[in-house]
Amino acid sequence: MDLLDFGAEAMSFDEPLDAQAQRLIEEAAEKIGEDAAEQSLLGAYLLEPEHLTVLVALYRFVYYRWRYADCLRVAEHAVAVTAGRLGLAADWRAITQDDFALAAQVSTTKARFLPTSLEGAGYLKLRLEDPVGALACFEKMAELDSNDRPGTAELLRMARARASAEQALEAVASVTVIRR
Fold first, then answer.
1. Quick check: 175 and 159 in contact, CB under 8 A?
2. Cα(13)–Cα(52) distance, rounded to whole angstroms?
3. Cβ-defined contacts of 30-34 (< 8 Å, 24+)
4. Which terminus of the chain faces fewer neighbouring Cβ atoms within 10 Å, N or C?
5. Does this model's pTM top 0.85?
């Protein structure tokens, strides 16, 4: 699959996409190397701010522009939207494995998308130097999918190592401040 393909066929969700929003996403795909692509995606977002196809297209666009803070906002919004559509807690930290198993009966597609969105958010948090936040995302992924299908164990290892290093640096900094 071409990661720059913004077409709805690349990521099929249960709800139909507004025809104008679909046209704007297709327009963005045609202008992918231009700033005008973002205007088309934002137009689609204004029409369908909670449609997962629109959020995926916007996420991909800002990600490939290395705008990780913007991308994280989109990923977090996608997590919240998906949780809401599945009847889960608005705060993903409160979602239990039992709740998630029941939600998977509502929509398998959305149930698969939720941990994928958490993975994206966690990865972005690592990029933005928030290993503790990333670790929380990856731990929730591991809780929701005990089979480690997306390779969560490796993400957990990486986030734990970075979080430990950050905590060690903070401890050294606080000792240095106390000695002065």
1. no
2. 7
3. 32/4, 32/6, 32/61
4. C
5. no
As given in the structure block, the two tokens for residue 116 are: 């994928």
64-67 long-range contacts, CB within 8 A, separation 24+: 64/3, 64/4
The token duo for 27 is: 């327009």
Rounded CA separation 86/76 (Å): 15
Neighbours of 121 (CB within 10 A): 26
Provide the 10 A C-beta neighbour count for residue 180: 4
What pLDDT band is residue 169 in, cutting at 50, 70 and 90? low
φ/ψ (deg, to 5) at 130: -125, 70
For 66-92, how does the pLDDT look when each residue is reduced to its tens digit (9 = 90+)? Answer: 999 999 999 999 999 999 999 999 899
How many other C-beta atoms are found inside a 10 Å radius of the C-beta of residue 32? 14
Q: Domains, the chain, ranges and CATH?
A: 1-65 (no CATH), 82-180 (1.25.40)
pLDDT at 172: 59
Q: How far is residue 22's CA from residue 40's CA, in Å, rounded to a whole number?
A: 10
CB 52 within 8 A of CB 113: yes
Give the integer Cα–Cα distance in Å for 138 and 157.
Answer: 10
Please give the DSSP secondary-structure letter assigned to residue 31: T
Cα(50)–Cα(53) distance, integer angstroms: 9
